[in-house]
């Protein structure tokens, strides 16, 4: 029986920067938040440097790379400007996402299949710098195959539609969406891609995704920053870590039961 490995938690600190930028000035400091998150047991930090700099700023990326000791995941649009910044900062990984100026948050997955020709040389430039490449995509076999053909290292599956359906009590739709996610996890893993997931996850939904044994990492931001208002950031991260570990333990028990059968 193959061992079920622990699942990693990446924490997105964008929304700490959103609060800072709402008033201006330097506080609250997203780098301080990242250091707290690191101390609380997170395995990585994610930050999205948008073209309009609405939350994370260039100096935040420089400081994060310099001050944290866990991997930095640079979330970004695949533009020449962002590629140049990433090649200078040299994060552990870059997660390429679609980006529209009018959206409040990333609304869907990257069209890796439809944008293959323009993504291919940009991904190559990032890989030349020794940066791991993740593509934030929908749970769709066509997009996952394109990620493999683009030589991405990772796919991060967009869990937002499933989380929205759960939150709104649309149980049949939620069940169907989760089935698509589970199938996409299996498909991506079979193609040799590392599988991450994120968007809209809370304690309960994170535990359910963590029970999919082929998922290696969850990236969570908005929920944790919101929960931190009530319990503090370190406590929120610790509880998320516990929820994910609980889900992973369920996966291990299921695997052991299958092997026994």
Automatic annotation (TrEMBL):
Q: Does the keyword Nucleotide-binding apply?
A: no
Residues at which 3-amino-2-oxopropyl phosphate binds = 12, 23, 200, 221-222
Q: Does the keyword Nucleus apply?
A: no
Q: Which residues form the active site?
A: 48, 75, 199
Subunit text: Homooctamer; tetramer of dimers.
Q: What does this protein do?
A: Catalyzes the complicated ring closure reaction between the two acyclic compounds 1-deoxy-D-xylulose-5-phosphate (DXP) and 3-amino-2-oxopropyl phosphate (1-amino-acetone-3-phosphate or AAP) to form pyridoxine 5'-phosphate (PNP) and inorganic phosphate.
Family named by the database record: Belongs to the PNP synthase family.
Task: Return the protein name.
Answer: Pyridoxine 5'-phosphate synthase
Organism (species): Xanthobacter tagetidis
């Amino acid at each position: 029986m193959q061992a079920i490995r622990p699942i990693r938690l990446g924490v997105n600190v964008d929304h700490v920067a959103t609060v800072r930028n709402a008033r201006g000035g330097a506080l609250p400091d997203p780098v301080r938040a990242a250091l707290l998150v690191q101390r609380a047991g997170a395995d990585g930090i994610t930050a999205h440097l948008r073209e309009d700099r609405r939350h994370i700023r260039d100096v935040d990326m420089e400081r994060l790379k310099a001050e944290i000791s866990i991997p930095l995941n640079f979330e970004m649009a695949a533009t020449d400007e962002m590629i140049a910044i990433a090649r200078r900062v040299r994060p552990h990984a870059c997660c390429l996402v679609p980006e529209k100026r009018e959206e409040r948050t990333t609304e869907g997955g990257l069209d890796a299949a439809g944008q293959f020709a323009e993504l291919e040389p940009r991904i190559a430039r990032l890989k030349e710098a020794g940066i791991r490449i993740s593509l934030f995509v929908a749970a769709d076999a066509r997009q996952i195959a394109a990620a493999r053909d683009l030589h991405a290292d990772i796919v991060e599956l967009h869990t937002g539609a499933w989380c929205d359906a759960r939150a709104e009590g649309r149980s049949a739709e939620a069940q169907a969406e989760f089935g698509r996610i589970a199938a996409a996890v299996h498909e991506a893993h079979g193609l040799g891609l590392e599988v991450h997931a994120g968007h809209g996850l809370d304690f309960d939904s994170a535990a359910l995704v963590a029970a999919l044994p082929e998922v290696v990492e969850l990236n969570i931001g908005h929920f944790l920053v919101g929960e931190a208002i009530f319990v503090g950031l370190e406590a929120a991260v610790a509880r998320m870590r516990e929820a994910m570990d609980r889900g992973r333990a369920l996966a291990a028990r299921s695997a052991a039961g299958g092997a026994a059968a």
